[in-house]
């Protein structure tokens, strides 16, 4: 069973609007999660400009020795990215499922203001259920 460590949702201007830590060790504090989200947003934007391929939409995967960062960017510019164990299968499909949950439980919520931090229990509950349904572990590193 592959492990998911963190989930980030970044608005189109690069602000962190949702963060969930699923690891039991090496947790990120608030400042570190904000820094990482800002760094990823910047690297994603730079990769679009530096790409030799016309029509490039930015980095989708950053592979490191101890983790992988997978990114999904919606048409509205909202980015979701997941830190997972190296070589975890099916993360792209999981990110698309998470975006569908975001659209259903956050964007359709009449009390949610677009681009603001996400505070929605139904989103978090269904997010955890989707991760478990896809057979990912949400604890431990």
UniProtKB/TrEMBL annotation:
Subcellular location: Endoplasmic reticulum; Golgi apparatus, cis-Golgi network; Golgi apparatus
CDD domains in alphabetical order: TRAPPC4_synbindin
SUPFAM superfamilies listed in its UniProt record: SNARE-like (SSF64356)
Keyword Transport: yes
Keywords: Endoplasmic reticulum, ER-Golgi transport, Golgi apparatus, Transport
Entry GO terms, CC: endoplasmic reticulum; Golgi apparatus; TRAPP complex
GO biological process, one term: endoplasmic reticulum to Golgi vesicle-mediated transport
Family: Belongs to the TRAPP small subunits family. TRAPPC4 subfamily.
Assembly and binders: Part of the multisubunit transport protein particle (TRAPP) complex.
Record-given protein name: Trafficking protein particle complex subunit
Protein source organism: Riccia fluitans
